[in-house]
Amino acid sequence: DDDDDIPQLSSHTLAALQEFYLEQQQREGMKTSQGFNQYSIGSIEEDWQLSQFWYSDETASCLANEAVVAAGKGGRIACVSAPSVYQKLKEQDGKDFSVCILEYDRRFSVYGEEFIFYDYNHPLNLPENLLPHSFDIVIADPPYLSEECLQKTAETIKYLTKGKILLCTGAIMEEQAAKHLGVKICKFIPKHSRNLANEFRCYVNYASGLD
Fold it and tell me: Listed GO molecular functions (predicted)?
């Protein structure tokens, strides 16, 4: 039979593939039927090759609310490699604060002027209009669990913030986080929409509502 040479997927692989495509169709259907909200978490899907893992809806809401309180009335918030927190903040339309997103993934350029292309390898390669110490709080989630990535991201954070820092990274980075940013671990434990192998924690350098 000529078909003998054609590679066949196992029934398990085929079922998993069909489930994936069905989930995709359902997501697209929901976007159409509900009126697509470009700021909802998942509107831009994770790209694991860029080490992207979105927060759960509950975690993103908690971090966004913490940022609003910490920034204060009329405050400015910067989200560095933390797009799901940015999206939650934008859902709070009309609140008295402003926010921008610094992100390597250019898909987030759909957010217009609030999007700033950011590569942690060049931590101070930022637009001229992004003035030093012009944000009331900086929320950052470095894409990789390495001291090099944290150290370079820390340069950006310290350049942007007036003082307050909210860092989300692995529990194994506690010592390096204290060393490079002077932040301490919080009781609040962030969750992701997909479970990660590494334990994740939040760190702050101010009296926060996350303890």
Answer: nucleic acid binding; protein-lysine N-methyltransferase activity
Please state, in angstroms and rounded to a whole number, the distance separating the CA atoms of residues 194 and 178: 27
pLDDT tens for each residue of 45-100: 544 444 456 788 899 999 999 999 999 999 999 999 999 899 999 988 767 999 99
Of residues 128, 73, 127, the one with CA closest to residue 98? 73
pLDDT of residue 186: 96
Q: Which amino acid is at 110?
A: V
Q: What is d(CA 208, CA 53) in angstroms, rounded to the nearest whole number?
A: 24
* Global pTM value: 0.76
Instruction: Give the full edge-to-edge strand order of the sheet including 115-117.
Output: 115-117, 97-103, 75-80, 135-140, 161-170, 200-204, 184-185
Cα–Cα dist 19/15, whole Å? 6
Residues 10-34 have pLDDT tens digits of 666 666 666 665 655 555 444 433 4
The CA-atom distances, in angstroms, between 198 and each of 17, 42, 152, 187, 201 are 27, 21, 21, 17, 10
Ordered by start, the domain boundaries in the chain are: 48-204
Query: CA 159, CA 169: separation in Å to the nearest integer?
Result: 19
Evaluate whether the domain defined by 48-204 bears CATH number 2.40.50.140: no
3-state secondary structure of 98: strand
82 Cβ neighbours under 8 A, 6+ residues apart: 63, 101, 139, 140, 141, 168
